[in-house]
Amino acid sequence: MCKFFMQTIMTLMAFLSIAACTSKPLDKASLQDLGPEAKTEGLPAQTLAQGKCGLFLWEEKQGRPLVFFQRAGSDIAQVYAGGHSFEAVRTSAEVEIIDGLFQRQKFTSGEKKLHLRLQTTSSRNVVEGIRIPKGVMSITGSSGDQSIISLSGLFGCKM
């Protein structure tokens, strides 16, 4: 049994050595050949200026892509849905939890309508961040088709 185990390990090591010598780094063209699962989903990393706050929401799915970002005090949100990034303009906001964070918001982007509903924890500590364990973003297109995205996130400030 020990001899079989050693032979298996030696064969595996030889195979890995050959594979390492013959492989090359992936370039952009190679990544495109890997199909849609190789593409990056979601918004790029977002930053906050000193003393500013923002709402960060991630989709509840594998890879947890950032799909919504809004700076506190701004009516503009960055959204990622349906494989595309776009800006949405807030048209209404209800139930202000703290300055700049609302339980319900509505946005438009072209002919798309976006509704955002959030549930926060009881903490109102912006230094540590306000956790958003549950949220739903629904997007309705011009033809009436609707996408519903489960979210979780954080409202935080850079101090």
What features would you describe in this structure?
The protein has 159 residues and is of the alpha+beta class. It has two domains: 2-33, no CATH class; 41-157, AttH-like fold (Beta Barrel), CATH 2.40.370. The chain is 17% helix and 47% strand. It has helices at residues 2-22, 28-33; strands at residues 53-59, 66-71, 76-81, 84-98, 101-109, 112-119, 130-140, 146-157. An eight-stranded antiparallel β-barrel has the order 1-2-3-4-5-6-7-8.
Overall strand count: 8
Cα Rg = 22 Å
Q: Supply the number of structural domains.
A: 2
CATH topology of the largest domain: AttH-like fold
Q: Could you name the ranges where pLDDT drops below 50 across 5 or more consecutive residues?
A: 1-39
Overall pLDDT level: 80
CATH class of the largest domain: Mainly Beta
Q: Helix-strand pattern, N to C?
A: HHEEEEEEEE
Topology, pairings included?
Layout: H1 2-22, H2 28-33, E1 53-59, E2 66-71, E3 76-81, E4 84-98, E5 101-109, E6 112-119, E7 130-140, E8 146-157
Antiparallel strand pairs: 1-2, 1-8, 2-3, 3-4, 4-5, 5-6, 6-7, 7-8
